[in-house]
Design brief:
The complex is a heterodimer of chains A (156) and B (156). With 156 residues, chain A is an alpha/beta fold. In chain A, 38% of the residues lie in helices and 24% in strands. Chain A contains five helices and nine strands, in the order βαβββααβαβββαβ. In chain A, a hairpin with a 2-residue loop joins β3 and β4. In chain A, α4 runs parallel beside α5. Chain B is an alpha/beta fold and 156 residues long. Chain B has a single domain, classed as HUPs (Rossmann fold, 3-Layer(aba) Sandwich), CATH 3.40.50.620. Helices cover 42% and strands 18% of the residues of chain B. Chain B has six helices and five strands. In chain B, α4 packs parallel to α6. The chains are: A alpha/beta (156), B alpha/beta (156).
């Protein structure tokens, strides 16, 4: 059976990545693994993240302290669980990794023998150009596995 | 029915791109369109070609036919037709366009309503042009089609 690894950011765009990746994985009749890499704790304390995966972080997480590694893990785990719920497939596996995002994705893909990695382009507009995010670029440069990039334009 | 657009260049790694892209498309039960973009004629007149798809095309055709745009077009169509035969599927559609790589790929994808664009990663420049080039920025801003990137290690 084919395996599709879907790397999700703790970002509202994750929903699109999860949905598109899931659709393709299902069409391929593949097993789905949702991955989230915990890297920078700062990232989670941003107040901008409102609703992710229909998961309003504020309701449950704002009193939830994200300053300890355990809390972060809990929140990230919840995020993946919510994503799984949203996709509505009990067979989806979830995987939490700690460390630099690109490396976590590459390692997980190797460990799982993933046939396909799905991630977003992390495109950002820098002055007048659209640039691909460094995580995506790094995975692209180091991966020997096919990569499905979902174009996402982040708002500035 | 899903549609997968596979962009092939004359690089020997095109075979891998065609094969992996095709098998992904088949597993999704999608329609396959092979695309080759004619851009710079100089690109075609180098002698560094190795057989592609078991098709030593340029040996038969000789360089003189590649001087004119028509000759190039014919050669490209033949090349795609050989690729199609190699994949062994009569329903594959082939397309040759002229112009800038990135723009042609994205425009074609839009025209045929492609669900996924497949391409190799070997021409990093080419890929970066799609993701970051200023020429294609406008096109990119209007597309949200996932890109399926197949890693192809260039032999040195």
């Amino acid at each position: 059976m084919k395996k599709v690894l879907i790397a999700l950011d703790y970002d509202p765009t994750a929903q699109k990545v999860a949905e598109e990746g899931f659709l393709i994985a299902k069409a391929m009749n593949a097993e789905v693994i949702l991955l989230h890499a915990i890297s920078d704790p700062e990232y989670y304390s941003s107040t901008e993240h409102v609703t992710i995966m229909g998961f309003a972080g504020s309701e449950e997480t704002v009193p939830l302290k994200l300053d300890s590694a355990d809390d972060l893990k809990k929140a990230a785990h919840k995020f993946l669980e919510k994503s799984k719920e949203l996709l509505g497939d009990k067979n989806i596996k979830i995987l939490l990794k700690e460390g630099e995002s690109a490396e976590s994705i590459l390692t997980a893909a190797n460990d799982l023998h993933a046939d396909l990695i799905v991630m977003d382009s992390h495109s950002r507009k820098v002055s007048s150009r659209i640039i691909m995010g460094h995580v995506t670029k790094k995975v692209l440069q180091h991966s020997s596995r096919p990569l499905l990039i979902i174009p996402i334009k982040k708002k500035n | 029915m899903k549609k997968v657009l596979i962009a092939l260049d004359y690089n020997p790694t095109a075979q891998k791109v065609a094969e992996v892209g095709f098998s992904m498309a088949k597993s999704m039960n999608a329609k396959v369109v092979l695309l080759h973009v004619i851009t710079d004629p100089v690109f075609y007149s180098t002698s560094g070609y190795s057989p592609i798809m078991g098709f030593d095309g340029f040996m038969y055709m000789g360089p003189m036919q590649l001087d004119s745009v028509d000759g190039l077009k014919n050669a490209s169509l033949q090349y795609l037709d050989k690729s199609k035969q190699h994949l062994g599927d009569e329903t594959i559609q082939i397309l040759v366009t002229e112009g800038d790589f990135a723009e042609s790929i994205l425009n074609t994808a839009k025209e045929i309503n492609a669900d996924i664009i497949v391409m190799g990663s070997h021409s990093r420049k080419w890929l970066e042009n799609i993701i970051m080039g200023s020429v294609t920025e406008k096109v990119l801003n209007h597309t949200s089609i996932p890109l399926f990137i197949i890693p192809t290690k260039q032999k040195k």
